[in-house]
Amino acid sequence: MFSVFNTFNTSALQILIILSLLLASAAQISFSSSQSNSNSGVNVWPKPRNFSWPQPQQANLLSPNFSITFPDHHKYLSSSVKRYLQLILSEHHLPLVNPSSFIHINTSAPPLLTLSVTVADLSAPLHHGVDESYTLTIPIAGGAADLAAQTAWGAMRGLETFSQLVWGDPSLVAVGVYVWDSPLFGHRGVMLDTSRNFYGVQDMLRTIEAMSANKLNVFHWHITDSHSFPLMVPSEPELASKGSYGSNMHYSPADVTKIVEFGLEHGVRVLPEIDSPGHTGSWAAAYPDIVTCANMFWWPDGVDWADRLAAEPGTGHLNPLNPKTYQVLKNIIRDVAILFPEPFYHAGADEIIPGCWKADPTIQSFLSEGGTLSQLLELFVNSTFPYIVSLNRTVVYWEDVLLDDNIKVQSTVLPQEHTILQTWNNGHNNTKRIVSSGYRVIVSSSEFYYLDCGHGDFLGNNSIYDQQTGSGTKNGGSWCGPFKTWQTMYNYDITYGLTEEEVKLVLGGEVALWSEQADPTVLDARIWPRASAVAESLWSGNRDEKGMKRYAEATDRLNEWRSRIVARGVGAEPIQPLWCVRNPGMCNTFNPVA
């Protein structure tokens, strides 16, 4: 075992602590004793599965010499413990609601000196399905608290929980607490698109750190698209040098390693996506001969929507009939598999637009001889899927590859044991279609989990906005409007309508930020705290012990959590005026409001 500790001088400290505590309490606003203890100002987000803090709730002082003992031969756990010790000793969080109104603060009790961390299996890798459970016991008598986990990754979740039970200046800690906790779903993620607009490495690290605080565990990195190719692939360097937005908008192998290692230190997997065969226009800068309809206007004047060349501006599909396509793509897949240790590889395969493939002369000849576009996609999948699997990867595709109305493959092409489908259309219906076919699914319904919706459309010269009536344009002007509120996200049940056996195939969910109208200046506010709402829904559910939706009491807790992560450096947007927090219940409604 190893101990991390603080060396603060403790001379006459007890008297100073008591005086400081009394002054701090007097300075804070006093709240009515009639306020529900559901928000005592001290909460854990996401709410644990089993949390016991018996009445009267009590808090003791945290020793300024507080230390954490832990197994020191796991480098990622070691990094995590050191980070959390610094946070616990320095955060001094002040809740929006004064905890002293609800919690008995016992300054005469012995302070909490130590948190002892034990891990049953230090060898378990951070893969899907790893055990993230933990138990946490903080005794009333002070002395030592105990955190026990099956794996280092569960220990990290428990460290986050402990950190949220410490607050104030001087630091107090909830005591008499017992927590047993484990996620409902093993896949809890955030997807970020870095092709349409570029994000610096620090932006991504900040996002991963916030994910870890919310017990989210998958950073799905949609790296490339038609708009730019920012990843420096060692065997194909011209893809980035010619297809990115510029030399200052690349991700080098060293950048990738930094992001992946940072993820491991925070218990977050980094899942790479190289979308193909669609969404590949940026590849044409380096390899124009393997990309169809590249750099063409996406929807020519007078052309029917069905005959457009792209789903949005930015055209280009890989040509499945060109052997060079597979030479380039296999080089990319191999290098990405080396750069990213994650066992899942996201291969995209969404939004194949018929008009783009039909614009190519070789494909025109193929079709004139009786071939179909679905056969083209099947050729592409058969030429790439086995290679990805040979690299010990499970292949993730967007649902389109199997469910698209026009261009799709037969299920026999995609063995269930090697395939996961990510759903984004038609809500529960498509989830049901996928799992009833025997496939595992990741849920990212655009109706509930898309973070970019409701901010208008990015098309220029759009006459739809030339109106004087003030009527809502397509519920916010974007294809997936309106804006998805945190309540909408929190209340979505991703296994609704499924049988017990089908539920087992739902790996979890991801919120998605597509970046047509997002970049680092709005990143934090677009993701947080709405992703926090999903984090709790996927970790412990959105219902109370009686089976009732708990969004009402979650509101106060989310206000508190949002305040805390803002103090930690995350630019999360507010969900209510501060007045609502300071006037409990006054911002609720008993009637649905349109």
Automatic annotation (TrEMBL):
Domain Glycoside hydrolase family 20 catalytic: from-to ranges: 185-541
Catalytic residues (UniProt): E351 (proton donor)
Single annotated GO MF: beta-N-acetylhexosaminidase activity
First and last residue of the signal peptide: 1-27
GO BP of this protein: carbohydrate metabolic process; glycosaminoglycan metabolic process
GO cellular component, one term: membrane
Keywords: Glycoprotein, Glycosidase, Hydrolase, Signal
Catalytic reactions of this protein: Hydrolysis of terminal non-reducing N-acetyl-D-hexosamine residues in N-acetyl-beta-D-hexosaminides
Domain Beta-hexosaminidase eukaryotic type N-terminal, residue spans: 44-165
InterPro entries per record: Beta_hexosaminidase_sua/sub, GH, Glyco_hydro_20_cat, Hex-like_dom2, HEX_eukaryotic_N
EC primary class: hydrolase
Source domain of life: Eukaryota
Pfam family, one: Glyco_hydro_20
Record EC number: 3.2.1.52
Record-stated family: Belongs to the glycosyl hydrolase 20 family.
Identification of the protein by name: Beta-hexosaminidase
